[in-house]
Specification:
Number of strands: 4
Strand order of the largest sheet: 1-4
Radius of gyration: 28 Å
CATH class of one domain: Mainly Alpha
Shape: flat
Largest sheet: 2 strands, antiparallel
Number of helices: 21
Distance between the termini: 59 Å
Helix content: 55-70%
């Protein structure tokens, strides 16, 4: 194995090799590949990803180094999804170490750091808080803060289930502990949760306004955005819509993607309820895309339901990236990446030249590329572990597209005796004679007309 040269291409290939090793049940090989990949790069964001993948592989081997690498990944990670995955592993390790005589010393050393992590307002951190509360309560240790966090978790779960009475009781219990311990930091947003559970409108607005004021004083955009979203949900009329719009703007600028998705979906729902259905679709589509990318399935389903209530028919959860491409767009993108020209693609898939150009425009927008030369890299990077490049693959794709099939052998090239403007397919097993389609006579072919995007024209 050669010495590290700092090559990003080498890092990508090593990650691919590690992914294949994990799939075939060889985690020891994956660990070797990922350790070598770490030596190739000093990029912080990439090292966070590599450390996370290495920790997962070492966990399978029960390697003690997994804890160290996952901890380092958490310190370096900036992506919310990646941090959430690391915190889930921290929760698992805490539950294991606290009751294992060989690992309990490690847990005792890290208990303070875990408590700090548990204070953050993410679902995974609240799961960690519940785990710590159970461990410390079993030990009989005073853990007022952690028990308050546990009450907050129970209150939020009750709120999500629609049990407002139980949610109020639990959240008020948590609030009493927080206030007794002078823990007034608005970062967890417990006041906003309590406001949503309140049965008195005046009582609901007071904690929300307090959260908003404290967040603005501390310069914390995420809690401020949560408070604005909550206030917008409680208010009615134009004031509520203004608060929800401001919440979406604040959360868009601070990188809180999941909270941004919630704000957009609440804004779209409020617009839909105020009979502004057309205006509601854009924030709902963006919220659906963000919720899908954050893995928030229930939130994405709610956005889908709201979109359907506006009269829209969402076909995909994602607006950008590989998942956003339609099957026709994906096929055209792959052929273009294989260095086929637009006329060659049109002839290969039996659509008009205008349709191919329209598909490529949509592909460029969804994959954020500017030309077809960037398509191969965009198609590879759109999946977590891209396939290993193989010699001659582009040529094989192009040759496969040009290879005549039983149906295509009967079709003349575009521009001769074909009518690319007619929609539909030839019925399998139908007549092959020119001048008929499914047994019906058709007029002679005229000049090519553009079909709708994604439509496969009928040949004369």
């Amino acid at each position: 194995m050669c010495e590290p040269a700092g090559s990003l291409e080498v890092v990508a290939r090593l990650r691919e090799a590690a992914a294949r090793a994990m799939r075939r049940g060889a985690p020891e090989s994956a660990v070797a590949y990922l350790r070598r990949a770490l030596a190739e790069t000093a990029d912080v964001s990439l090292r966070a990803t590599l450390l996370h993948e290495l920790g997962l592989a070492e966990k399978v081997l029960a390697d003690p180094a997994a804890v160290q690498h996952l901890r380092a990944s958490l310190e370096l990670a900036s992506d919310a999804v990646q941090r959430a995955a690391v915190v889930r592993l921290q929760t698992w390790l805490a539950g294991l170490a606290a009751f294992d005589p060989r690992l309990v010393g490690e847990f005792d050393q890290r208990a303070g750091q875990l408590l700090v992590t548990a204070h953050e307002d993410m679902a995974e951190q609240r799961t960690l808080a519940a785990m710590l509360a159970g461990i410390l309560a079993w030990r009989g240790e005073p853990a007022g803060t952690v028990l308050a966090l546990l009450a907050e978790v129970r209150g939020r779960l009750a709120l999500a289930a629609g049990d407002f009475a139980a949610a109020r009781a639990e959240l008020r219990s948590a609030a009493a502990t927080y206030e007794a311990l002078h823990l007034l930091n608005p970062s967890t947003g417990w006041r906003s949760a309590l406001a949503l559970a309140a049965d008195d409108p005046d009582e609901a607005l007071q904690p929300t306004n307090t959260d908003l004021e404290l967040a603005r004083q501390a310069g914390l955009p995420r809690p401020a955005g949560i408070a604005l979203r909550t206030r917008g949900m409680l208010a009615v009329g134009p004031q509520g819509l203004d608060d929800l719009r401001e919440a979406a703007e604040v959360l868009a600028g601070c990188g809180a993607r999941l909270e941004h998705a919630r704000a957009l979906i609440e804004l779209g729902a409020a617009l839909r309820r105020s009979n502004q259905r057309t205006a509601a679709r854009e924030p709902l589509r963006k919220g659906l895309d963000l919720a899908y990318r954050c893995g928030a399935g229930r939130l994405a389903q709610r956005a889908t339901n709201e979109l359907r209530a506006t009269g829209a028919r969402p076909r995909r959860a994602s607006l950008t990236g590989l998942e956003a491409l339609t099957p026709s767009e994906r096929r055209v993108a792959e052929l273009a990446a294989g260095r086929m020209s637009n006329p060659e693609i049109a002839q290969a898939v039996f659509v008009t030249l205008n349709t191919v150009e329209g598909h490529l425009r949509h592909v460029y927008q969804k994959l954020s590329v500017g030309s077809r030369t960037q398509l191969p890299a965009a198609l590879r990077s759109a999946v977590p572990y891209p396939p290993m490049p193989q010699a001659g693959r582009r040529a094989a794709v192009a040759a496969d597209a040009r290879r005549p099939t039983a149906a295509s052998a009967r079709r003349p090239p575009l521009g001769q005796d074909a009518d690319p403007g007619r929609g539909g397919r030839r019925r399998p097993g139908g007549p092959a004679a020119r001048g008929t389609v499914s047994g019906r006579a058709v007029p002679p072919a005229g000049p090519a007309r553009s079909g709708r995007a994604g439509e496969i024209p009928r040949a004369g």
